[in-house]
Specification:
Blueprint (H helix, E strand, L loop, with lengths): L1 H31 L8 E5 L5 H10 L25 E5 L5 H10 L5 E5 L5 H9 L13 H8 L13 E5 L5 H21 L10 H14 L6 H14 L6 H8 L9 H5 L22 H8 L8 E4 L5 E4 L2 H17 L2
Antiparallel strand pairs: 1-2, 3-4, 5-6
Length: 338
Amino acid sequence: MIKRLLFVVLFLGVVAAGGAYWAFEQVKASADTELTLSSPQIFTVSSGTHLQRLFRQLENEGLMQANPFRRYVGRLHPEWVGIKAGTYQLTPGMSLDDAIDLFVSGDEHQFSITLLEGERFSEWLTQLRSNEQLAHETAQMSEAEIADILGYDGDKLEGVLLPETYFFTVGESDLDILKRAYVAMESLLADAWEDRDDALELKSEYELLIMASIIEKETALAAERGLVSSVFNNRLRIGMRLQTDPTVIYGMGDDYNGVITRSALRKPTAYNTYTIDGLPPTPIAMPSKESVLAAANPDESKYLYFVADTHGGHTFTTNLRDHNRAVKVYRQWERSQN
């Protein structure tokens, strides 16, 4: 009788242990389940979300099937109580285990916005304000008000922000991006001015910024920036007007329709470098780092002129006669393309 009782007890113990092991494996497997993803997906964890609520959200969004054993998975992973609110990117092949580890880490997805060199502040502002992931703090602000918040002593932000790809998380604002771009340009400009060529004709960091913006608009070729800079520096040295079309266009504002007429070249504006001596009063575009460095350290040359060539670059010359020849060649080529 005692042997039979011991056998029954032992048998029930084995069954219980087997059942416990089976249940343990089911709970463990529920955490190892691969999420249903065919492409990367943005997933937002709200503040105050606990584990069971997170499971329901994943189920409701079709990212995994319901599983009754999953309610016990927190006992295997006590560290999962530290889920952090935020916006994350889930990727194909990721398991529930991987996803929750990501939520616990707080490593939110980084969005990006690329603010291009050569553009105007108004174009940047339009791009920032249309970005759906950014909060829009500048929506009711004027350019002068934004400048004041950035700590810039001026009412025009043309040129004083560094073109770059900026990364951000949900909750950051367009103003946050502008602050970073402003600080980045300040740092770049200070370093470039410190390392400037001793023969540079510019008198301040701000003049360096103006020159960099002109260089940016004059050439898209990295190899030409130093030469373009040398032409303008040589002209400043001998008191020759810069005579650069991009400044005229900027001064024309909304009147510019894609064509610079002879009357526009003769019409005095603060930015028409055909009618004013020296530099215009402000930058005319957002200059890249490369243009800032080229403005600070022009190539050594005797060039005073340049004109577009037939290969996407420019022909540089030292005198008006050769320049006129280069202009004639380009115009003949241009007519042949029409």
